[in-house]
Amino acid sequence: MINVLLAEDQSMVRGALAALLNMEENIRVVAQVEDGKAALEYLNRTHSETDAIDIVLTDIEMPNITGIELAEVIAEKFPELRTVIVTTFGRAGYIRRALAAGVYGFILKDAPSEILAEVLYKAMAGKKTIDPELAIAALDDKDPLSDKERKALRLAGSGKKTAEIANDLCLSEGTVRNYLSEAISKLNATNRIDAARIARQKGWL
Question: What does pTM read for this prediction?
Fold first, then answer.
């Protein structure tokens, strides 16, 4: 039996995915959560229990902690778990970061329903499943942002001021301004909002 933790911020989509997977004889959705933060809280509470999670199935664009950030933490803290991403967005930047985070599957939500279960079975067998065309596109589009520039830019794109970003990231305002300035320069943007827009379109945030 494959025990799955499902992280998806849209409740209707979350319910539909859970119902679809629970129809499989050898797959069980043990828990459903609304974002990456809740997923990590669940894993921290339950990772040593008998019915521990085998696979974390997650969306990318979620509040608090994104699916890719979740995959990065899982790879470091729970290396025995497999992470599979199911998303609406096949952006090259997302795929590159997902591959770097060691995910075992990257599939789009408009893929045929039977593909989802197949990807989970392959993940449990240690096999990775990523659409070849998506993977090739990812290799051709390199993310120029550092992790700290990305975090600062994401917060700036949500409308936060420099002081708020500095507080959230535990940095000085001067350091935040430097990160944002570097990001703007790297993306040839006119300002921080424009830079955030460009980076989001590329899948780099």
Answer: 0.69
